[in-house]
Amino acid sequence: MTRDHSSDPEPKSLSRRSFLKGAGGAAASGVFVGELATGAKPVEPTRCLSSEETLEGDVEVTFHLNGESIAVTVEPRTTLLSAMRDRIGHTAAKSVCEQGNCGACTVLLDDEPVYSCLTLAVKADGREVRTAGGLAEGGELSPVQAAMVDRDGMMCGFCTPGLVMSVTACLEKNPRADEAEVRQACSGNLCRCGTYPHVFQAALDAGRKMVASSNSGSGSAGGGR
Amino acid sequence: MKTFKIHRPKTVEQATGLLPSRRGPAEIDEARPMAGGQDLLTEMKSYLVQPESVVDLGAVAELEEYEVGASLRLGALTTLARIASDTEIGARWTALAEAAASVASPQIRTQATLGGNLCQRPRCWYFRHEDAVCIKKGGSECFAESGLSKYNAILGGGPSYIVHPSDCATALVCLDAEVTRSTKRGERTQPLEEFFTLPSEGSVMRENVLKADELLLKIEVPALPEGWKSTYLKFKERASYDFALCAVALSAKLEGGKIEDARLVLGAVAPIPWRARAAEEFLAGKQSTPEVWEKAGELAMEEAEPLADNAFKVPLAQGLIQKAFKSLTDGGAK
């Protein structure tokens, strides 16, 4: 049986190339350092969908994507992943299995890790969405990103944005997470290249760094584990 | 996914009013309820169901009950992440907390709900295949019965040989939980054990008594009696994200080296959480020794009728039963 997918959401402004170009030269960090690509308009959230009883046809959803308020028109069936990639042109979260198995699409929804392929875009309305594209600040990689580079935590790199978000969620809750906790946090992310040991090391490094930097303000030395 | 509308009711009454009075064939289904969507969206993406509309339960406050008191009351919308991280549930209803923590991955547990977990559809690869019209999808045959049956039932099978995929169901039946659902005439509460139906008893296309226009509202788990402890052991093909090959939920009162009483439920071996009653009866009053645990395992598997590829589940279940007793005896679990 051949399935007619013609009714599936149409990419409106697929701008992966312009996104990558915009992300600039940092080779190893190309998948991390992003800025919002074109295709969606930054706005102040004016309303939430919550008052609407039935959503049908074109639906305007407003959410924060890496701190920036975005309004985007979607269908009820559009996933958050599709809204980001195909409508907004923000391709940090990867589309791989589309079945909630691989973790490449992992984003943080109000600080909790979710599969954006199994999250309807309308469910993100009025909420905070964070992707690996928004972790760097002022061109500086986040501790997790930097540790992934230092520890050689990727080969092909396709799973990396998802793993980075899973590790980030884990360490934001507990920067002193041990390896067992890190493994548990990464258990919903597949890496076909098998870089797991490096990813775990990177996560532990990043946790130490986060503890150290939060301690440095109060003058205590390091965040020893 | 086929296109659909989303209804966003605020009450159970509004929600059930939007549901069809009976189920149509999957491809012309009118409306499906959705909580976390972690199972339903995969079914819709695989074109197993193609509802005209989805009834999003997210705004139904009545389904959000969460009370950890004398008993445990959990509304259908309670997320698995919340159950898994609640230390009081972990201390008092250990099997449930362990089961919830064992489900899928952190990403799934963030959104997946207890109600959805209990009502999720089977994982049988024939059932999940878009083009396989098996007996659970209105066809005439269970392809696992004569086909590849590694993950299928060894107990209670026929005419369908699916296994129930829910970890929480196994633990909650062990903990003697009750389920409340909406019905046309109001609410109905019954033991969770009676909620699940064998394919030979209820509709072969369903796994529970829930009708198309009914909703699972909440679960209530009584406090374990004084001296009882529980545990949930899940065996998977890999340590991370997976469904069980076999699971065991055990609650027991162990005193002075003796098993006063025990409740033993097996997961992933039957189309429903499988209560090992013969083993329970044998265990009551016995000394808690490896020989007794072994005998309990034998009794639990006495009626097993493996298919071509799943005889491995028999010794696996027996081993897990022994391990569960050892775990309770060693005090690892509460």
Model description:
The complex is a heterodimer of chains A (225) and B (334). Chain A is α+β, with helices and mostly antiparallel strands and 225 residues long. Chain A contains 6 helices and 7 strands; from the N terminus they run αββββαβββαααα. Chain A has a 6-stranded mixed sheet, sandwiched between helices. The longest helix of chain A is centred in the C-terminal third of the chain and has 21 residues, at 196-216. Chain A is globular, with a radius of gyration of 18 Å. With 334 residues, chain B is an alpha+beta fold. Chain B has a domain at 228-329: Enolase-like, domain 1, CATH 3.30.390.50. In chain B, α5 (94-102) runs antiparallel to α10, α12 packs antiparallel against α13 (290-300) and α13 packs antiparallel against α14 (313-329). Chain B starts with a strand and ends in a 5-residue tail after the last helix. Chain A binds chain B through residues 1, 3, 7-8, 50, 52-56, 75-77, 79, 98-101, 103, 106, 109, 112-115, 118-120, 122-123, 166, 169, 183-189, and chain B through 1-9, 37-38, 41-42, 44-47, 54, 56, 58-59, 81, 104-108, 110-111, 130-131, 239-241. β2 of chain A pairs antiparallel with β1 of chain B, so a sheet runs across the interface.
Question: What order do the helices and strands come in, and which of them pair?
Answer:
The complex is a heterodimer of chains A (225) and B (334).
Chain A: H1 16-23, E1 41-42, E2 54-55, E3 59-65, E4 68-74, H2 80-88, E5 106-109, E6 112-115, E7 128-130, H3 143-150, H4 160-173, H5 179-185, H6 196-216
Parallel strand pairs in A: 3-7
Antiparallel strand pairs in A: 1-4, 3-4, 5-6, 5-7
Chain B: E1 5-7, H1 12-18, E2 31-34, H2 40-45, E3 53-56, E4 66-68, E5 72-75, H3 80-85, H4 87-92, H5 94-102, H6 106-111, H7 114-119, H8 125-128, H9 143-146, H10 167-174, E6 178-183, E7 186-191, H11 192-195, E8 216-221, E9 228-235, E10 246-255, E11 258-267, E12 274-275, H12 277-283, H13 290-300, H14 313-329
Parallel strand pairs in B: 1-3, 2-3
Antiparallel strand pairs in B: 4-5, 5-8, 6-7, 6-8, 9-10, 10-11, 11-12
Helix pairs in contact in B: 5-10, 12-13, 13-14
